[in-house]
UniProtKB/TrEMBL annotation:
Any Pfam family hit: Peptidase_M28
Protein name from the UniProt record: Carboxypeptidase Q
Native organism: Hymenobacter aranciens
Ranges where the record places region Disordered: 27-48
Domain Peptidase M28 intervals: 288-469
Summary of subunit composition and partner proteins: Homodimer. The monomeric form is inactive while the homodimer is active.
Residues making up the signal peptide according to the UniProt record: 1-24
Cellular compartments annotated: Endoplasmic reticulum; Golgi apparatus; Lysosome; Secreted
């Protein structure tokens, strides 16, 4: 039976607007979805809620949850291409996939931005052993940190454990020279936000080899960046200082780190044997993948949304950051699917080389400056594909206040937590290059993120379809508001 537009509008309004207390009570009966968290109709409604906007957002989420394509796109990316470290053949396959996926979605323009990227390869599987003073060896789980040099065969030496750079600095040279420095600062599990715990520990991964090499050590061993207690080492990028001797750097699983720490207490003279064949190869040509819907009224005002296409090589790069890529594509597809024609240009970008160089983000910003583009805002999804919470904002107080005014529209979808905070690594260069009014990071429930982050566990089966599609809907909703009203 054909449904009239008036009937459809009535149904949409019923879905979008608050119910009365009596209606809420009836709807909460067994077999129905409770709506008691919604405000009663006899109370003042939330400010800054436009009914037309509310209806449009409802349509976006209906499309995302019933016809969403993020999950299927992620399945293809993860299971047919998999790990896609910058410079690898799989990274190029991912570029081709991204371009074809955007073209299939029917964007107005799809194109590539050339960028030169590092090419680091892991080589054969790493080997790590704790060797007792009597020569007994215990194998432990290790992996090379990204950009590290290899060991040139087996490297065996004593171990000195520290939990901070200040602690290392206080040690006499004789206690460090010729040994591995073992950086064993764990996540602070008292912190509610895992990202804060990560930020409080990750400097030892990034700078550990520099500080160890500066003191005459032969290598750096770093506790994996996770609070999970398991035998899955987590990789991630490290760096060197050309003025300091380069030494190999490896991550220990948290179980291996705990075991090494305990054994060192009983036997300070034990040794560690490490073998890694990783190496840095010449740079390779790669690409950012860009798709656009051209603005109908202000085509030169750009709203960017993106994730990074590259991933570490231990798994499939599902949550980091396949989810961000497919959500960015899906956000634009959703806008088209509901018939919304943005007044401002909306651009989805799959950035290359976030993990070990940020070359894609830097090149994108450089081209935006070169082309004298005006960017209203930039949104990044790089915190996993978990349940939406809202958005983190880097911008002026006025921009933050404007975004917070839209919170009531996002509240029914649990995406209304809008606060100042880190937005994302790939969009950071835009701030200096063209100065958008706000950098915005999609914020989701990250409690499980660092369990899989940069490890062999970051696989497609770890992603929940509804959580993923809700995230794409949340991003599309914010883009709709930005494209309609500006900032």
């Amino acid at each position: 039976m054909k449904t009239s537009w008036k009937f459809a509008l009535t149904v949409s309004l019923a879905l979008a607007l608050p119910l009365s207390a009596a209606q809420a009570q009836r709807a909460a009966k067994p077999g129905r979805v409770p709506v008691s968290e919604r405000p009663a109709a006899d109370k003042p409604g939330p400010p800054h809620v436009n009914v037309a906007d509310s209806l449009l957002l409802r349509r976006l989420f209906d499309e995302a949850l019933t016809k969403g394509q993020s999950y299927e796109n992620l399945r293809v990316l993860c299971l047919t291409i998999g790990a896609r470290l910058s410079g690898s053949p799989q990274a190029q396959q991912a570029v081709d996939w991204g371009k074809a996926t955007m073209e299939k979605a029917g964007f107005d323009k799809v194109y590539l931005q050339e960028v030169m990227v590092p090419h680091w390869v892991r080589g054969a599987k790493e080997s790590g052993e704790i060797v007792s003073e009597k020569g007994k060896a215990v194998k432990v789980a290790v992996c090379a940190l990204g950009s590290s040099i290899g060991t040139n065969g087996k490297l065996k030496a004593g171990v000195v454990e520290v939990r901070s750079f200040d602690e290392l600095k206080a040690l006499p040279d004789a206690a460090v020279r010729g040994k591995f420095v073992f950086f064993n600062r764990a996540f602070d599990d008292r912190l509610i936000e895992p990202g804060q715990a990560y930020g409080g520990a990750v400097d030892q991964r990034g700078r550990g080899a520099i500080e160890a090499g500066r003191r005459g050590a032969v290598g750096a061993l770093v506790r994996s960046m996770t609070s999970a207690r398991d035998d899955n080492p987590h990789t991630g990028n490290m760096r060197y200082d050309e003025a300091v001797p380069k030494v190999p750097a490896a991550a220990l699983s948290t179980k291996a780190a705990d075991e090494l720490s305990q054994l060192l207490k009983a036997a300070p003279g034990l040794e560690f044997q490490l073998e890694m064949s990783c190496q840095n190869l010449p740079e390779e040509k790669s690409y950012n993948v860009v798709g656009e819907i051209i603005g109908s009224k202000y085509p030169k005002e750009v709203i960017t949304v993106g994730g990074h296409l590259d991933s570490w090589d231990l798994a499939q790069g599902a949550h980091d950051d396949g989810t961000g890529c497919v959500q960015s594509i899906e956000a634009l597809r959703l806008l088209r699917a509901v018939g919304f024609k943005p007044e401002r240009t909306v651009r989805a970008v799959l950035f290359m080389n976030e993990e070990n160089g940020v070359r894609g983000g830097t090149q994108y910003a450089a081209l935006a400056k070169q082309n004298k583009e005006t960017h209203v805002a930039a949104i990044e999804s790089d915190g996993g594909g978990f349940t939406p919470r809202g958005f983190n904002v880097e911008g002026s107080p006025a921009a933050l206040r404007q975004l917070q005014k839209w919170a009531p529209l996002l509240a029914p979808y649990h995406a209304a937590d809008i606060n100042a905070g880190h937005a994302g690594t790939d969009i950071e260069p835009l701030q200096e290059a063209v100065g958008p009014k706000a950098l915005i990071g999609y914020d989701c429930d990250s409690q499980r993120y660092f369990d899989v982050h940069h490890s062999a566990l970051d696989t497609f089966d770890q992603v929940n379809r509804r959580e993923l599609e809700l995230g794409g809907g949340s991003m599309a909703a914010l883009i709709y508001l930005l494209a309609k009203y500006g900032l």
